[in-house]
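Appendix C reproduces, verbatim, an entry submitted by the partner laboratory led by Prof. M.T., so that reviewers can inspect both the input and the predicted structure.
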Amino acid sequence: MQLTLDRTEVLQQMQEGLHRLGVWLGLELAALLMKNEVERLCGSRYEHQPERKATRHGRQRGVVTIAGQKIGIDRPRVRSTRDQRELPLEVYGLAHREDAMPAAVLQRMVRGVSCRDYEGVIESAAEGFGVKRSSVSRAFAAASVKKIAELNARRLDDTRFPVVFIDGIGWADTTMVVALGISEDGTKRVLGFREGATENGEVCKTLFEDLGERGLDTSTPTLFVIDGGKALRKAITKVWGSKALVQRCRVHKKRNIQAHVPERHWPDVARMLDRAWAEADFERARKQLVTLAAYLDRIAPDATGSLREGMEETLTVKRLRIDPALAMHLVTTNPIESAFSCVRKLTGRVTGYPLPRYSANC
């Protein structure tokens, strides 16, 4: 197995994956909105309508704006049956504006997909592009819901993902639990997400079961890199059973231990932790952590429990004898604050995120 990772990339990939999903949704729904307008003007394709006022006239490359980005799109053209002049499409004119589909609306669409509120996604898209609700036909809404549902059900059985990172990612004013898979050739792919917290076991279990139903292999050993939440750990075991191999994030573990250690003792404790984790051999590393636990019993008893809880899972990559050059990238989920990446750039100036209407199954 060969993987090429950068320690700062994993959560950044999660953030960028959610953003790419939002942009994809925006493009798909812009195309469907334009198709809907063409059908209102020209009628259904191949339908005989002697009184029609417009006819289809091919396609042309155009540009729409999504979250401040100009993105190419194939736009349909129509022309008048009376004088053969081209008729401008209202939807394209709205989507072409500089302020079309703001980042906040894009994020509401992603949240709607997470909650399976597909009708809400359609409403958000129409709002983002400035399209009136009266312009959205029932047939368009039904076709769009089907399209988005297909996105959420896309198969995962075409690729083997031996490593999966799970973490809660800040997204606008909420948190998304994101599963990021690393394929055998090092390709990173957002596998799925749900709105909620990593501490919510039911949210995590639902996410994992959905991934399994979509073809993610749950029958072969898979390494999960997590922050150590008990509910998350339990949910992984329920779905993967004995095939789940868990690596606890050392950054989170060190932070939890430090919270219970008097400041004057922390430099020594940190050195002992780092020395144990740097040890190449699993057994020697484990013994050093046991020695540290005995030391903590004397100076900070509360810290001992924090160290012992999942202690050996901070050494999983050593137990698996993963090459050190690779293992160094698999021992942390990284502080979430360090990886807002392009999402922070896009949303940094947004001061308010209106909440969408959620369906009952959220």
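Confidence is low (pLDDT under 50) at residues 335-347, 349-362. Additional entries are available on request from the coordinating office.
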